[in-house]
Every structure is written in C-alpha cells, then in structure tokens.
Write a structure and sequence with these properties.
This is Plastocyanin. InterPro entries: Cupredoxin, ET_Amicyanin. By secondary structure, this protein is α+β, with helices and mostly antiparallel strands. It has a single domain, classed as Cupredoxins -  blue copper proteins (Immunoglobulin-like). The protein contains 1 helix and 9 strands. The strands form 2 sheets. A 5-stranded mixed beta sheet has the order 1-7-5-2-3, with no helix packed on it.
Length: 149
C-alpha cells in the first residue's frame, strides 16, 4: 500500500511539473545593445502612415516583417491587423529599457504605453542608430528587431 501511494504521488508530481513547464512562455535571452547616441530624441505619433514610412503589421501570429532595416530619422508604424490588442515596446520585457531615450510609461520612449486595438496603429520615430529589439508587452513571445543605420 505504501509503495503504491509513493508511486502515485511521484506520478502526480511529474505530471504537474510538466504542465507548469509547458504552460509558462519561454524567457527571451537578455540582449546587450551598443547604441550610437545622437542628440535627437524619438517621438511618438498616432497618425496614419504616409508613403515614406515603414509599416510593421501585427497579426495573430506575430509581427511581420520581424526584422526591418531603416535609416536614422525614419518613422515606423505598427499596424494592428490581429483580433487582439497589441502593445509595441522596446525590449526587454517587462521594463522596456533597451532603446536609450527615457520618458515612456515604463522606461524607454519606444513604448506605446497602452494596448493598440485591432484596426488601429501606433508610430515611433527612430532617431538613434542601433539594433533595437522590441516585443508585444501583452504577448511577449511576439517580438522583432528594428535595425537603424
């Protein structure tokens, strides 16, 4: 009886452990960025993108394209075409401090600071050269990179 109880208890622990391992999203590896600092700062803009801006589309499977290369001073628009809200923000989750200008709601100015509803968009002007990782604060497993030259 004692051996059966021990075996059942071990099986329950294994099943629960497997459940929690599979339930939790995988953590992103920390990133180290070496920014090239300029004197200008990023600006947020909620307007509709013009023809000379770059658009990243957010869908139910993530950001597309996941990597975008732009020139310093380019405004990138994050357009939500998913069925859920998105919150584009600088890496790392949850502090949003990789992009070096401060003043956003949690850390960097590269932060929408709210959920952007389906059909809406949010824009950010990249004034500092570097490789800037970003993620969806509401679904951190969705992420990408803006390369600013």
């Amino acid at each position: 009886m004692n051996k059966t109880f021990t075996t059942v208890l071990i099986l329950i622990i294994i099943v629960l452990g497997g459940y929690f391992l599979l339930k939790n999203p995988k953590a992103q590896a920390p990133t180290i960025e070496t920014p090239v600092i300029s004197t200008s700062t990023g600006d947020t803009d909620n307007s509709v993108p013009s023809a000379n801006q770059n658009v990243i589309t957010y869908t139910n499977i993530g950001y597309s394209p996941s990597t975008l290369t732009v020139q310093v001073g380019t405004t990138v628009t994050f357009k939500n075409e998913s069925s859920m809200a998105m919150w584009a923000a600088s890496a790392s989750h949850p502090t949003h401090k990789v992009y070096p200008t401060t003043g956003g709601c949690l850390g960097s100015t590269f932060d929408a600071c709210r959920g952007i509803q389906p059909g809406d968009s949010w824009s950010f002007k990249f004034d500092i050269a570097g490789n800037w990782k970003y993620h969806d604060h509401l679904k951190p497993s969705f992420f990408g990179t803006i390369i600013v030259k």
